[in-house]
Design goal:
The structure is a homodimer. Chain A has about 450 residues and is of the alpha+beta class. Helices cover about 20% and strands about 40% of the residues of chain A. In chain A, helix 3 packs antiparallel against helix 7. The first copy, chain A, starts with a strand and ends in a 5-residue tail after the last strand. Strand 18 of chain A pairs parallel with strand 16 of chain B.
């Protein structure tokens, strides 16, 4: 069986931990099996690995997330990279074409597409097995997972099944998108389920929908034409137009940890340097800074601190965060990359033409910063721990703790960490942003 | 008239803004006359300057505060520096000896000693004038200010005056130190006043108490013997032993802004990059970091963020902060110095023998970092803005934005800023602390 994990875009509803470069599914806040911390994507990937089935996983995502996914799931994970963000319909079609043209999957093979971030239990994956069997038995064009609703939520789509049930599935009677609370209550009374965004189908069902000349690769065609594809959800463009749709219910624990309010319930211990004093209760503290957070007399709140900012919020009020943080217009101050991570530790504008920005970079042993140059800034690198090999305009030299490199604007530079390497990078220039970069091909 | 401002020790009750190197009186949180921000010491100094009198101000403080006082009050302010902290009796005796031996004040001159941090109004200084007149009229050995109590507080000393009043003062009947609430209420009913820690006397009264050989300088003697002086308050050692004590009442606004709870009332607008959203009310936010603080649904709290840490506290709970922050054992991450200020922006321990620490230093035009060396660390300096002159092991060179200096352990170095100069300093070594410093004499 093929599972396609849809790793969606970044949002700011978990600011300051999530940002344009760091989506909520990568935050290591959940308690792992060994009582450490794991992210949503790590949890789902682990749960899939525990399924009683031979499963091949492909992650469908955008280029911005590739580094984070490889860093968290390992270098071997299969990734299909969308050239740009265009909603779930183009993303799933591209993944299907990838499975067919690149992975040479058969047209009869069942494919399950699911989001990368549901907080759920093993029964969810048993339900996926039931969906797979329903596809193999050819009960419908598309088989959906219906989540047993726990309250009349206004934020989900509802699936109303027909009354008649066979072998654990039912045909779908109709879809109702985000009803108001009273309508939602009526629907639940009538047996409706939440649409969990899990789709199962034979690979051939989607491949058959793609126009293509014989012998051409649908995958390469879609990659080239991607910017022209309709920005529309898979639900609207495919599911609701399908002739035969079935739904398999799932009655277990399922949560959408999309806001601090919901996430707070699942965060175990406080993260980072935190001190709870006098009268602090029902409060979660996540501190990614290396200075302490002291909470006194704090009740029913969330406190989150990262290089991007500090959130202090009542749990309920956190749902209203979006407009405030979207107005911030700030560059990401922390990013996980394929090679490690960086943190902006200082940033000052002296005048329009004179800025400085200082980063702490951590490069994992054996990893490389790509060969690159910047047009508008000088960089002064100081290695503060570890060893590596530096490449400057074609010349290599070994570097170690205490070594300094001066990289002027236009100079090509790369670095390979031999051991885990920490570096302070001071940038000076009139414009200091991640977009000022030219990359060069270079095999080490 | 001479006013001696006692600039007391640092505490952590206003953590993370106050620390061992930065006392509460230097925090620029109060609203100044031009709607900017001023500190407690700046406010008091300004109010003294507005007095209708010829006043000479001397600040009595410890060496740790000299840089902050000069930076906030100007280079001209007269400072008497205690060799070490030893309570108010030795501090005031030293200041008196300084006025006599160094400033050559006459023995008949009135001296008023007052704390540097009362939050009060102009009437307070009118009361000081009345105290001065009482000293000139020789009504007592010591004249105190009695603050009209606003509630039966347990944290102040009380002065019970005799019933008979003349010319705005009364003789003191007795002192009662920190009574319980019911005793305090009784005292207030009987006409007792709070002891505001303001003492007025003829200079000769204190000078007469100092044993000294003729012709010797009491000031130099006290400086040398300072470590042997009794650690005791001026109230216990002098005031309560005096034969004739008078008190002048003050009935205006007077506040001790010693905790976040009391300070919060007097902070005007939020400081720094702050965003108040949805349901945030009755809350003060002070943000000295260059990342935003977002507060949602926060009620009746104080949020304070500095390079030392982040406090989130209910206003009432903030009074209980001391034990929690005293347990922190953290080096100061921000200090104001005579030459400007520094901020620790990164600090990592890789192993017992391998640490790195990165600072952003701001050195004001014309100011100098003293000639110094460090035994246990290398420093890499990168000038990120401004110009200056660098002195390295006896050799000078001009430096500007973009220049780098590598200062190995043992190397003597100094810097003079020509224009305002910003620098990133990367420290590498087995021990990185402010105590690892040897200073050298050097005239530029």
């Amino acid at each position: 069986m093929n599972i396609v994990l849809l790793s969606g875009g970044s949002g700011k509803r978990l600011w300051p931990l999530s940002n344009n470069a760091r989506s909520k599914q990568f935050l290591k806040l959940l308690t792992s099996e060994d009582e450490g911390k794991e992210s949503m994507v790590q949890r789902v990937y682990r749960q899939i690995g525990q399924m009683d089935a031979d499963v091949h996983v492909t992650v469908a995502t955008s280029v911005a997330q590739v580094d984070s996914i490889r860093s968290q799931l390992g270098a071997e994970v299969d990734i299909v990279t969308e050239p740009e963000r265009r909603d779930t319909y183009p993303a799933i079609m591209l993944a299907a074409a990838y499975l067919y043209d690149v992975k040479h999957c058969g047209l009869e093979e069942p494919v399950i597409v699911m989001p990368v971030d549901p907080y759920t239990e093993q029964g969810y994956f048993d339900t996926i097995r039931k969906m797979e069997r329903a596809v193999r038995e050819n009960v419908a064009d598309i088989v959906l997972m219906g989540i047993d609703p726990t309250y009349p939520s206004e934020k989900y789509g509802y699936i109303l099944p027909k009354r008649e049930k066979k072998n654990g599935y039912a045909e779908v009677q109709k879809f109702i998108e985000k009803p108001d609370t009273s309508k939602a209550a009526e629907l639940i009374a009538a047996g409706a389920l939440w649409n969990g965004g899990v789709f199962a189908f034979r690979l051939g069902y989607l491949i058959g929908k793609m126009d293509a000349e014989p012998e051409t690769s649908r995958f390469h065609m879609l990659m080239e034409q991607y910017h022209k594809l309709k920005k529309i959800s898979f639900d609207y463009e495919v599911v609701e137009k399908a002739e035969h749709i079935a739904v398999v219910p799932f009655c277990g624990m399922w949560k959408d940890l999309g806001t601090w309010n919901t996430l707070a319930e699942e965060i175990g211990t406080d993260t980072g340097l935190t001190i709870r004093g006098e009268g602090t209760a029902d409060t979660k503290i996540v501190n990614e800074l290396n200075i302490p957070v002291v909470a006194l007399g704090v009740k029913d709140m969330v406190i989150a601190a990262s290089p991007d900012g500090i959130l202090v919020s009542g749990k309920d009020a956190s749902s209203f965060m979006k407009p405030y943080v979207e107005a911030l217009e700030q560059r990401p101050m922390y990013e996980e990359r394929r090679w490690g991570s960086y943190k902006v530790i200082d940033y000052i504008t002296y005048s329009d033409e004179r800025k400085s920005l200082t980063k702490h970079l951590e490069i994992h042993a054996g990893k490389k910063l790509s060969y690159q140059s910047h047009a508008k800034r000088d960089e002064i690198w100081t290695v503060v721990d570890g060893t590596g090999v530096l490449l400057l305009d074609g010349h290599t030299r070994n570097v170690k703790r205490g070594d300094v490199a001066y990289i002027t604007a236009g100079m090509k530079h790369a670095l390979c960490a031999v051991t885990d390497l920490h570096m302070i990078e001071v940038q000076i220039g009139p414009e200091l942003d991640e977009e000022d970069i030219v990359r060069y091909a270079m095999e080490w």
